[in-house]
Design goal:
Blueprint: E1 3-9, H1 23-40, E2 52-59, E3 68-78, E4 82-92, E5 105-115, H2 129-137, E6 159-162
Antiparallel strand pairs: 1-3, 1-6, 2-5, 3-4, 4-5
Length: about 160
């Protein structure tokens, strides 16, 4: 299966009154990683055609302003019309807070499931074979028929790594 790792610095707006990341930040980070993955697969055109039908997350460790969140997103299953992503978010402490080097701790883990529904008023439909193959194995040579220009993103990741 395919995957990607995206690193993001925890910004002030990602935190809540308690000073650590807000629970809703996780879904934004996961969707940003998904966007980077789809971009790398030549599947930008899926934006708007893959609504979410399930989201689950376990919050295990706090992330603080200035920490780095390393989002590891993997396609774990491709069904007839669905895709299931699994993710692990690791906390890399900000240098200013770390008294001694700490290994990255798992801050959150979970899964997100989306379905292919290219028609606004219709239900889910089977994946076209080329898209299902790209999600499972990466894009075939020359694949990119679903790319579009000007696809919006919320912000640029600090870094990405293809898995």
């Amino acid at each position: 299966m395919t995957g990607i790792v995206v690193d993001r610095v925890v910004d002030w707006q990602d935190t809540d009154a308690a000073g650590h990341y807000h629970h809703s930040t996780v879904v934004r980070w996961v969707e940003a990683a998904e966007a980077a993955l789809l971009e790398s697969l030549g599947l930008r055109g899926l934006f708007g055609s893959i609504p979410r039908v399930r989201y689950e997350v376990d919050y295990l460790e706090r992330l603080w302003f200035g920490d780095t969140a390393s989002i590891d997103l993997t396609v774990s299953a491709v069904g007839r019309s669905s895709v299931r992503y699994e993710f692990v978010i690791r906390r890399i402490p900000a240098e200013s807070r770390a008294l001694a080097p700490e290994p990255p701790a798992i801050a959150a883990r979970g899964a997100l499931t989306a379905v292919y529904a290219p028609e606004a008023m219709g239900g889910s439909q089977p994946w076209p074979a080329t898209i299902a193959t790209a999600l499972r194995d990466g894009p075939p040579p020359g694949f990119g028929a679903f790319e579009t220009d000007g696809w919006p993103t919320d912000s640029e990741p600090t870094s990405t790594r293809q898995m």
